[in-house]
Amino acid sequence: MDSLLLLLGFICMLIGILGSILPVMPGPVISWVGILLLYCTSIPINYWILGITLLITIVLSILDYVIPAKGTKHFGGSKYGIWGTNIGLVVGLIAPIPFGFLIGPFLGALIGELVFDPKNQSRAFKAATGSLVGFLASTFIQFLVCVTFLGLFITVVWRNSALLF
After folding, report:
1. What one-character-per-residue DSSP string does 45-97 give?
2. 161/45 Cα distance (integer angstroms)
3. pTM for the whole structure
4. How confident is the model at residue 139, as a pLDDT?
């Protein structure tokens, strides 16, 4: 049973890393489930690791929606651009176009800003660029956290290998 849970936990880690890049799947959440599955084996439960990683996962899940909007705002976008970013992200995920999750927020912010002020196209483009930068920053942070969770997973398995194998 331990081997099955260990394998499922490792698979969750790999899917979590993939999910950190593809916004369709919640990468850090899936990686955290992998850590949880690890502690369902005969390894003694470390509540500190589970609690801290859960807190990081919750904060990161919230920031995943906040960072692209803040990027739009930081680059001079209005509420229209922020709403356009969020709507564009959803449409980009649903639309069957390659890299829709990148193109959607950018175009959404651009269209939102052009609706707000059709004459100021440079500001609209700058805000749309901010949306893209925010999205990429959020994705990069998620990727780093998922890789760190994988490193933690491997370390815990290595240190407790006598209990597992």
Report:
1. P-HHHHHHHHHHHHHHHHHHHHHHHHHHHHTT--HHHHHHHHHHHHHHHHS-S
2. 15
3. 0.83
4. 87
